[in-house]
Design a protein that fits this description.
This protein is mainly beta and 195 residues long. It has 1 helix and 14 strands, in the order βββββββαβββββββ. A 7-stranded antiparallel β-sheet has the order 4-3-2-1-7-6-5, with helices on one face. The radius of gyration is 17 Å and the shape is globular. The termini are far apart. The C terminus is likely disordered.
Length: 195
């Protein structure tokens, strides 16, 4: 199947440090990343994509706008995550959102994520209509994200660079900034006791 989109870019995968350079390709069924003529590093069926989020991540010496793709590889029930970077992230986000069945996660509220030695602090600027009824906050299944569930049934995913535990502490300030504090965990094995 001929690709609908193809672009040079970079990819970082969960559990592996650093960025890899290669080509992103998307056809009507699959999103792939890898070096030319080699087995792809990412091979995600569009039907298996669980989430698309926008975040900032360090690339070389600067911070870049990236997509975070959460997906199920093959028939596995364990989700994976990759960080997606090309020259035109917005175009890929739009095209993916239009083609991913039952797409659940799109983030478009201004969010800052601060990682400290023992906690992660997320600051989200809520729209005026959400300040009296702030979103419900839950931890994403892979613990590398925060789900904000609004009263309309929309869920938004905030990608996190490190895993976090359950039991977020949430406060909404008078200016509409929601502050979420989460305990940082050093390994996913450390999260077992939290459940």
């Amino acid at each position: 199947m001929a690709p609908l989109l193809r672009a040079q870019g970079a990819c970082a995968t969960h559990g592996r440090s650093g960025w890899k350079l290669g080509w992103w390709e998307m056809d009507g069924r699959t999103l792939r990343f890898g070096p030319p003529n080699r087995k792809p590093t990412v091979n995600a069926r569009l039907a298996g994509i669980l989430g698309i989020a926008v975040s900032q991540r360090k690339f070389l010496v600067t911070s870049k706008r990236v997509l975070i793709i959460t997906y199920l590889p093959g028939r596995s029930s364990d989700s994976r995550r990759c960080w997606f970077l090309t020259a035109d992230v917005g175009l890929w986000q739009t095209e993916l959102a239009a083609r991913v069945p039952r797409q659940r996660f799109v983030i478009d509220v201004p969010v800052e994520v601060h990682v400290e030695s023992d906690e992660v602090v997320v600051l989200a600027d809520l729209p005026t209509e959400s300040r009296d009824d702030p979103p419900e906050v839950r931890i994403a299944p892979d613990r590398y994200g925060l789900l904000l569930a609004t009263g309309t049934g929309t869920e938004r995913l905030v990608g996190l660079p490190v895993p976090v535990s359950d039991s977020p502490v949430v406060e909404v300030g008078p200016t509409g900034t929601m502050v979420v504090r989460l305990r940082r965990i050093t390994s996913l094995a450390g999260a077992v006791g939290d459940e």
